[in-house]
């Protein structure tokens, strides 16, 4: 029966390896935090063009990640894109009402993310508020078109 | 002319018969799976399952981990040479992690599993059949599907996902060794780019679902080939080959289907 | 450790095992019950079975009496093992039926069939010991699956069975370490572990050296008497089988050719029977596989060449 004991131990170790591996993948690789869902708040922003922005993209402030894009949908009233952001709750009541949201690109070809820059309004954004001041994504084709038409008119 | 018609008629008949045979054996395999999958809980089932877990899972761990390490390292090396041309070597972590989690870990672990554990399962059950052990078990009044096949099926089903997780972890670590320690990618961007792009549900979860499907298919093929073979030494060697061939094809084919469903927006 | 009931049970099994034990057979005190008339235990009626296009049985009728040793003999390839598998319910006949103790084997539900099989033991030609268990666990296997006996009890029973086949000392060996004869004796111990009413022996004497052959013959005989078993032996070893069988069935070409006691068969004048019983090379069963004549096979080609 001694053989069976070492076998049980081996299989137990094997299962443990699996569980630890899963925990490693969760925490270290996918960057999950154990206390994530509770302390965030929600802000909306409308953009006329979001370019290649995807759900789960980063939201940064001065380069520091402060939240994620939760959902992107078409606003049927204005026919622009309504982007729902989830921000860390430490920022709730800290961001001024005239905070700007811009869609930026990491590097020349990298992924797109949202950068927030703070304004000067004494009023602050609360849960569910809407950011009015937005900058759409730069679309390369439009830039090139503009550049060419400028050249021609010159 | 007439003999020509006769010849092609015979060929069509042969084709039809072959189709019928294939369907028949597929049906047998389905019934077989249904009968053995239900037979898991029993007083002794636990220790039988444990023994098979040891055989199928623990003993496959070494080969799977070593392969994972090398594949992660190669992936980092190849990825780096491509990404550095675009000045995007910070994305190395993301590339290594995503290709491992979504594709390479489930597929390569399943292929290794088919070669290491699947062929051994077929040969073992086949040998038990050839030496009349299965028949004698039946004559003692014990259903060999429950006693012999079910623990192996369940052990395979549980071990392959664990092996796949191990493969991914070791592979990502191997990529870290090559990318960060050797080629000098900034450590922070290796991990943070990875964390920014890997989703637990979409990437890790789907990878595990893939490996569950592969586990079921590979062990099913292995135990069925063992149970259904012609009980001679030639039959055993043929069935072992068939196990590896069929399960490799099934894994690769199913991988395409699953990828299309999970990531291809189908 | 033991309460009273277990104690009596223990001594009962001990005494009973001593009776079946090969060593002290001369001191046996147990009365062997000999039924005056032969009550049929297995009845086979009009059995047809074929494998692919090959007809193996064409209407077999047999009655196997309770408590006797019945041998089924016939040349190789007549499907004797298939017949045992039909009796055990592993194969289903095309037509006809097999009844064991009144129950139609092939009409039973899977569960009832498995219950019936607990009353049968079968000794396979290869022994068919489970290769992942040692000798002790092999013999304990039926007890563990079908009874809830506590471990010490199982141990005692296994020791008694192994003692009966003279292999108590080999209990820790694995099947791979046993010789063919030993493996068959362990398999015999396993077959009688649950004290069945019926034992089917598939070619028990094939490939045995004279000593283990003698041991096996004695064991089968002793077991049958001590346990009042019904035994069915499938074999083509004439001398050994004749020495222990009460009844003989001779099958050839898918049918029963002759039956009776060894004595009446010995005197049977049917050429097929006498060829088999006396082991003559030539007779109704040809030595040669069907072929064209020897002359044409050897010289046919030469003459064809010459003709050209």
UniProtKB/TrEMBL annotation, chain A:
GO MF, any single term: phospholipid binding
Annotated Mce/MlaD domain residues: 41-117
Alphabetical list of PANTHER family matching this protein: INTERMEMBRANE PHOSPHOLIPID TRANSPORT SYSTEM BINDING PROTEIN MLAD, INTERMEMBRANE PHOSPHOLIPID TRANSPORT SYSTEM BINDING PROTEIN MLAD-RELATED
Protein name: Outer membrane lipid asymmetry maintenance protein MlaD
Organism: Vreelandella alkaliphila
Gene that encodes the chain: mlaD
UniProtKB/TrEMBL annotation, chain B:
Major site of localization recorded for this protein: membrane
Topology versus the membrane: Multi-pass membrane protein
TM region positions: 55-84, 153-176, 204-223, 244-263
Subcellular location: Cell inner membrane
Keywords, comma-separated and alphabetical: Cell inner membrane, Cell membrane, Membrane, Transmembrane, Transmembrane helix, Transport
Molecular function, one GO term: phospholipid transporter activity
GO CC terms, sorted: ATP-binding cassette (ABC) transporter complex
Domain of life: Bacteria
Family matches, as InterPro entries: ABC_MlaE_roteobac, MlaE_Permease, Permease_MalE
Membership in a protein family: Belongs to the MlaE permease family.
Assembly and oligomerization: The complex is composed of two ATP-binding proteins (MlaF), two transmembrane proteins (MlaE), two cytoplasmic solute-binding proteins (MlaB) and six periplasmic solute-binding proteins (MlaD).
PANTHER family tied to this protein: ABC TRANSPORTER PERMEASE PROTEIN-RELATED (PTHR30188), PROTEIN TRIGALACTOSYLDIACYLGLYCEROL 1, CHLOROPLASTIC (PTHR30188:SF4)
Purpose: Part of the ABC transporter complex MlaFEDB, which is involved in a phospholipid transport pathway that maintains lipid asymmetry in the outer membrane by retrograde trafficking of phospholipids from the outer membrane to the inner membrane. Probably responsible for the translocation of the substrate across the membrane.
Name by which UniProt lists this protein: Intermembrane phospholipid transport system permease protein MlaE
Organism expressing this protein natively: Vreelandella alkaliphila
Source taxonomy: Bacteria, Pseudomonadati, Pseudomonadota, Gammaproteobacteria, Oceanospirillales
């Amino acid at each position: 029966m001694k053989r069976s004991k070492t076998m049980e131990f081996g299989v137990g170790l094997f299962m443990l390896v699996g569980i630890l591996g899963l925990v490693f993948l969760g925490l270290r690789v996918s960057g999950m935090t154990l206390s994530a869902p509770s302390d965030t708040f929600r802000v909306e922003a409308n953009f006329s063009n979001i370019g290649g922005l995807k759900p789960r993209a980063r939201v940064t402030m001065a380069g520091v990640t402060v939240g994620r894009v939760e959902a992107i949908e078409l606003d049927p009233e204005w026919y622009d894109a309504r982007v729902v952001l989830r921000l860390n709750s430490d920022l709730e009541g800290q961001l001024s009402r005239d905070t700007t949201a811009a869609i930026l690109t990491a590097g020349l070809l990298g992924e797109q993310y949202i950068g927030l820059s703070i304004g000067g309004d004494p009023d602050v954004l609360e849960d569910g508020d809407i950011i009015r001041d937005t900058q759409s994504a730069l679309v390369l084709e439009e830039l090139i078109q503009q550049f060419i038409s400028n050249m021609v008119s010159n | 002319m007439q003999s020509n018609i006769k010849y092609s008629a015979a060929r069509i008949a042969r084709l039809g018969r072959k189709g019928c045979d294939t369907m028949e054996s597929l049906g047998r395999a389905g019934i077989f799976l249904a009968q053995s999958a239900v037979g898991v809980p029993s007083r002794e089932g636990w220790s039988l399952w444990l023994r098979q877990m040891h055989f199928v899972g623990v003993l496959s761990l070494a080969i799977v981990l070593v392969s994972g390490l090398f594949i992660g390292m190669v992936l980092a090396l190849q990825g780096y040479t491509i990404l550095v041309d675009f000045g995007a070597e910070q994305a190395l972590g993301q590339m290594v992690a995503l290709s491992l989690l979504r594709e390479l870990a489930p597929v390569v672990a399943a292929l290794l599993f088919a070669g290491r554990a699947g062929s051994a399962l077929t040969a073992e059950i086949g040998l038990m059949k050839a030496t009349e052990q299965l028949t004698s078990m039946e004559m003692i009044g014990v259903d060999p599907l429950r006693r012999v096949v079910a623990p192996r099926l369940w052990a395979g089903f549980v071990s392959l996902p664990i092996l796949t997780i191990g493969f991914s972890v070791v592979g990502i670590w191997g990529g870290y060794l090559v990318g960060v320690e050797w080629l000098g990618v900034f450590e922070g961007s290796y991990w943070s780019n990875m964390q920014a792009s890997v989703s637990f549900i979409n990437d890790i979860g789907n990878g595990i679902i893939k490996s569950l499907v592969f586990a079921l298919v590979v062990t099913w093929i292995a135990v069925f080939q063992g149970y259904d073979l012609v009980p001679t030494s030639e039959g055993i060697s043929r069935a072992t080959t068939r196990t590896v061939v069929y399960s490799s094809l099934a894994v690769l084919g199913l991988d395409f289907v699953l990828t299309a469903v999970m990531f291809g927006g189908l | 450790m033991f309460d009273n009931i277990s104690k009596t049970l223990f001594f009962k099994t001990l005494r009973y095992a001593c009776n079946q034990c090969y060593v002290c057979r001369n001191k046996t005190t147990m009365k062997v019950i000999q039924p005056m008339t032969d009550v049929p235990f297995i009845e086979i009626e009009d059995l047809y079975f074929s494998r692919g296009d090959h007809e193996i049985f064409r209407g077999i009728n047999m009655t196997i009496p309770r408590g006797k040793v019945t041998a089924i003999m016939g040349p190789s390839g007549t499907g004797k093992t298939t017949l045992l598998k039909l009796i055990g319910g592993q194969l289903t006949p095309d037509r006809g039926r097999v009844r064991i103790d009144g129950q139609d084997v092939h009409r039973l539900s899977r569960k009832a069939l498995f219950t019936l099989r607990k009353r049968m033991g079968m000794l396979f030609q290869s022994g068919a010991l489970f290769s992942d268990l040692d000798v002790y666990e092999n013999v304990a296997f039926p007890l563990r699956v079908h009874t809830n006996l506590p471990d010490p009890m199982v141990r005692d029973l296994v020791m008694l069975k192994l003692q009966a086949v003279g292999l108590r000392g080999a209990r820790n060996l694995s099947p791979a370490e046993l010789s063919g004869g030993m493996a068959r004796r362990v398999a015999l111990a396993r077959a009688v572990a649950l004290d069945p009413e019926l034992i089917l022996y598939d070619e028990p004497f094939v490939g045995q050296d004279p000593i283990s052959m003698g041991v096996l013959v004695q064991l089968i005989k002793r077991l049958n008497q001590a346990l009042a078993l019904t035994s069915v032996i499938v074999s083509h070893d004439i001398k050994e089988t004749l020495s222990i069988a009460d009844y003989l069935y001779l099958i050839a070409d898918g049918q029963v050719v002759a039956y009776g006691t060894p004595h009446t068969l010995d005197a049977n004048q049917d050429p097929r029977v006498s060829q088999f019983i006396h082991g003559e090379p030539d007779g109704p069963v040809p030595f040669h596989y069907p072929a064209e004549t020897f002359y044409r096979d050897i010289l046919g080609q030469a003459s064809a060449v010459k003709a050209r």
